[in-house]
Structure to design on (269 residues):
């Protein structure tokens, strides 16, 4: 068993138990912590390219954005967006940061804060937007399906991958891996609905599977853009065998707003 498998063997049961057994506020705290660690890694990638993204205001804005999303008040969300756009330049003025690269730094700061407010915010809404009996099931289905699809794509790609999908961005990804990941994604949907989520209608379950089979690889490729631009393989080495928190959350976070929107629109509770 390699480092990748050992880490997953140790952490996965703890994560699953936390999703199922712990109250929502603990889950939200974990999402916020992981989201901020991933945001910090993305700040580091921007800085590696010479873009002076300020860490403290960026992470603070991301944390506030997640909280605003979880309060589910559209007016607060508008206020957060307006203040975020206006206050980042003010911070640059007051901090007397170097003028060189200021535009890139401000743009990066705003992107990172809004990106995690939307994506990590949606990870929280997957739990909060449904009844307590259903919310943990939605989160578990989202996570297990994406993790399964990622693993299927990885192992099938390693063994049989010959046709590169996006060699410029992610040289190791192959179309064979995508096929394997898609197959395991739909198996994950079947498993989740059969074992613990029978109230989810089959047509909607299959729609979620199709959505995640498409968007999970896109989220991975989006993160690969930042890593290739910075010239690094992983966002960090904080998780043995898996890279950093940004590496482990790219697909989960990117697909979360779409899973949430699909279920809210087609399966109102």
């Amino acid at each position: 068993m390699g480092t990748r498998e050992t880490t997953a063997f140790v952490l996965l049961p703890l994560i699953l138990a936390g999703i199922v057994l712990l109250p929502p506020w603990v889950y939200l705290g974990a999402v916020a912590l992981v989201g901020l660690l991933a945001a910090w890694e993305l700040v580091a990638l921007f800085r590696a390219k010479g873009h002076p993204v300020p860490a403290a205001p960026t992470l603070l804005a991301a944390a506030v954005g997640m909280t605003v999303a979880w309060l589910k008040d559209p007016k607060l969300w508008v206020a957060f967006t307006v203040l975020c756009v206006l206050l980042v330049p003010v911070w640059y003025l007051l901090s007397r940061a170097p003028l060189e690269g200021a535009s890139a730094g401000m743009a990066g700061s705003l992107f990172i804060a809004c990106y995690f407010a939307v994506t990590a915010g949606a990870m929280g809404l997957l739990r909060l937007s449904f009844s307590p009996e259903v919310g943990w099931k939605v989160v578990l289905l989202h996570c297990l399906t994406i993790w399964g699809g990622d693993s299927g794509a990885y192992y099938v790609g390693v063994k049989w991958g010959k046709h590169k999908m996006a060699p410029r961005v992610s040289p190791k990804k192959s179309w064979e891996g995508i096929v394997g990941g898609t197959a395991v994604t739909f198996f994950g949907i079947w498993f989740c609905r059969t074992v613990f989520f029978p109230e989810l209608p089959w047509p909607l379950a299959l729609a979620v599977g199709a959505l995640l089979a498409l968007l999970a690889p896109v989220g991975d490729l989006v993160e690969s853009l930042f890593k290739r631009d910075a010239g690094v393989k992983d966002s960090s080495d904080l998780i043995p065998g898996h890279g950093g928190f940004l590496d482990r959350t790219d697909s989960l976070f990117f697909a979360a707003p779409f899973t949430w929107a699909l279920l809210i629109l087609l399966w109102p509770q």
